């Protein structure tokens, strides 16, 4: 198991469930940054590829076939990292990406209450 890197933002700790209380301005900014990053279909696909990859991490060489050029893939991965959704580690010539451990739980918690009321 690889050591976890520190998240690059406070996305994971951002917000309570939507039905718990109104979000503060800071919480809303953090959640919006996360959802904005995932609002692009290529970024959402890349995030999904990393999240579902065996072992919880994926080499850029394994996830780059998403119908756009390699520089565009790199741009989208950078945006996901800036939003705090992914972390990366260089090993030799390859970069390995993994979903920040608490991101999926935080996203689920934020939306869980809203799903109960639908």
TrEMBL record:
<dbReference type="Pfam" id="PF01022">
    <property type="entry name" value="HTH_5"/>
</dbReference>
<dbReference type="InterPro" id="IPR036388">
    <property type="entry name" value="WH-like_DNA-bd_sf"/>
</dbReference>
<dbReference type="InterPro" id="IPR051081">
    <property type="entry name" value="HTH_MetalResp_TranReg"/>
</dbReference>
<dbReference type="InterPro" id="IPR036390">
    <property type="entry name" value="WH_DNA-bd_sf"/>
</dbReference>
<dbReference type="InterPro" id="IPR001845">
    <property type="entry name" value="HTH_ArsR_DNA-bd_dom"/>
</dbReference>
<keyword id="KW-0238">DNA-binding</keyword>
<dbReference type="GO" id="GO:0003677">
    <property type="term" value="F:DNA binding"/>
</dbReference>
<keyword id="KW-0804">Transcription</keyword>
<keyword id="KW-0805">Transcription regulation</keyword>
<dbReference type="GO" id="GO:0003700">
    <property type="term" value="F:DNA-binding transcription factor activity"/>
</dbReference>
<protein>
    <submittedName>
        <fullName>Transcriptional regulator</fullName>
    </submittedName>
</protein>
<dbReference type="InterPro" id="IPR011991">
    <property type="entry name" value="ArsR-like_HTH"/>
</dbReference>
<feature type="domain" description="HTH arsR-type">
    <location>
        <begin position="23"/>
        <end position="118"/>
    </location>
</feature>
């Amino acid at each position: 198991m690889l050591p976890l890197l520190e998240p690059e933002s406070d996305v994971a700790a951002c917000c309570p469930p939507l039905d718990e209380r109104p979000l503060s301005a800071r919480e809303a900014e953090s959640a919006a940054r996360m959802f904005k990053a995932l609002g692009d279909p290529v970024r959402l696909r890349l995030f999904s590829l990393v999240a579902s990859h065996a072992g919880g991490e994926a080499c850029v060489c394994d996830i780059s076939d998403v119908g756009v050029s390699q520089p565009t893939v790199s741009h989208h991965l950078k945006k996901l990292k800036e939003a705090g959704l992914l972390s990366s580690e260089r090993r030799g010539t390859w970069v390995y990406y993994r979903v920040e451990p608490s991101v999926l739980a935080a996203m689920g918690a934020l939306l869980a209450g809203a799903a109960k009321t639908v």
